[in-house]
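Incident log entry.

Two folding requests arrived from the same account within the same minute. Monitoring flagged them as a possible duplicate submission, but the sequences differ. Recording both here for audit purposes.

Request one:
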Amino acid sequence: MIHALLVDFRPYLQYLIIFALTAYAFARGAGPEKQAGTIMSSMVVLYLAYHLLIPEGGVYDEIDLGHLMIDLVVLVLLGRLAIRANRIYPLWMLAAQLISTLMHLGRGLDTEITPLAYFLLIHAPSYIQVAALALGLAAHRRRVRRFGTYRSWRTS
């Protein structure tokens, strides 16, 4: 029973975790944590809006242009954050986003990729991003308790 609930409501559970992490980032995080949470929450909102406006979206037999556009926007935003932030976890989030974004290119170049593989490789990296954000928030809180406030952004 619980397994069936987790399978059926997996995306909603992930959305809830992302929104909760974003709320925690705004309550206890610094600038990079707030931006990372905002980017992740915005990605969820864009994804839900895409599927609400275009219910037939999410066809994985060919390149899904809606998901490609969302992934490109998130890639640019995470790239900007990863370059500017005085943190390591945004680099992990960027790397996961790069996997997802490049899978669209792979799908366009090789039509032999199964729809399931395409689906998994554009959605699964978001779990890495959620874990990176959670670990980044925990590391930030630990550093603040241990050393006090510290620089959020790179100076060079």
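Request two (distinct sequence, not a duplicate):
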Amino acid sequence: MIIYDAEGIERGGYVTTDTEDNAMIRLDSRHRMAAILVAGPDCADQNGSRMTVADKEGVKFQQPAIAALSPASCGEFRRIEKEAPGRRWCQKRFSDAACQACLGGS
């Protein structure tokens, strides 16, 4: 489902993905995406359910805050960091402190 404004400009929508089974609601300004809400198929991972606010630099707010990644998540992000160093994939989902606690021991 796509949302249009009175001038016919796309301003958001409801989307599902084939590959990850996510459901998303997107809200756009006239020039770029302003907000996206994503719900995975299980609504939580090994680190629990949480609300996360992030921008291109990384996580700005998380409630409840994840202080330490689960062993499974930490292992996955260590693998990703070895394959694509410096891309900050962990920091796109968790606080820098939680990621450094995990990745500092890699």
